[in-house]
Design goal:
Strand order of the largest sheet: 10-14-17-18-19
Radius of gyration: 27 Å
Distance between the termini: 57 Å
Number of strands: 20
Helix content: 25-40%
Structural class: alpha+beta
Largest sheet: 5 strands, antiparallel
Strand content: 15-25%
Number of helices: 15
Amino acid sequence: MVLLHALSRLRAAGVGCELSAQHVQHGLSPHADAWVDSCQELCQRLDVPLAIARVQVPLGSGEGIEGAARRQRQAVFARCEADWLALAQHRDDQAETVLFRLLRGAGVRGAAGMPEERSQAAGPRLIRPLLGLSRATIAAYAAEQALSWVEDESNADLRLRRNHLRHEVLPCIAQQFPAAAQALARAAGHFAEAARLLDDLAAIDRSRVAGAHGRIDLRRFSLLSAARARNLLRHELLVAGMRAPETRWLDEALRQLANADAASATCVGTVDGELHVYRDEIHVVRQRPAVPTVPLAWHGEAQLAWGADRLSFALATGDGISRRLLAGDAVCLRTRGGGEALQPDPRRPRRSLRKLFQEAGVPPWERNRLPLLCCGERVAWVAGFGVDAAFACAPGEAGIVVALHSGAQQRIEQGLGSPPGAARGGSSGR
């Protein structure tokens, strides 16, 4: 409430910006609807547009209610149509965060607390303009402006560790260290600086161990000290959008990587993804929605979903798959089951998909996600490899150009070159 009120005063003072508000209704409190009503009343009074997002917090996910709710909020934040998204955490929140994370054994990055601003993988840049102000200062502003709000009853629940720190531990510390909150917030700044230096070190190490395709070369990686190897792995996971792993996870990853070879499969996984080794390179693979496990019939739709990806079907002339040949049997999309073959180049013999995948360097975990377009029992098209010669469209003939849209095609071809016989771009079906 204080942050929104202060920003509205800045807008009234002539600061050139558009202002809107976003409220996330988690549905966890009996007062959740009252919070919505309170936000609506204030926004109407301040003439600020308000968007309300109602989310379902998954329980039993293993990350706790607070963690699950945070993920739901972050998903909403990523969808906000704005340049900046201002959050209202203050200095006392920062002190609690630092102390809480230290007691949980956090590393340098975790002990850095909350940054004043940071970018997201998607959505607006997050800023915390109140992070340097104390709770008392903010409360004084609220009293001066006669602001009212609905109190979150869970803030008084001492069974929650954050609340125990806030109401029991920090007041006790403040009796001996009156500036404890300021000191913890200042320490967060020191930790943040150290984290940036570790990121710089990770970038240096990565440039030294990168292979021909830009990924981490396993043999060069094995020459790093354990501390620098852990730092580089942690950096790679964070850059991939995954959560910072625990030290025991990193230690297990290093143990398995030390015994990995070119034929290794999954190294070690987390809830966010997995580490793989393929052709002496380390791959960080984020968790993705599953692709269909049963054949997906195609009845002429212009688009079909494929996991998190999308397939498009465009009408063409003299290009893609012959519509005449597709009309002879039921058409479906499926993953490979084993034994399939393809002839993407009419000048070369038909070859098994297994051989084509191996020659193209398609990693094993990607092979079972690629869509195959089949006409009856015959494979007519494979993502990344194009149309089978038996289904190729003749000049002037009506055709269908199939394309896979997402990062899947990039993962197939990045740094590996186009697969033998594939069309330009690999996914168009030419």
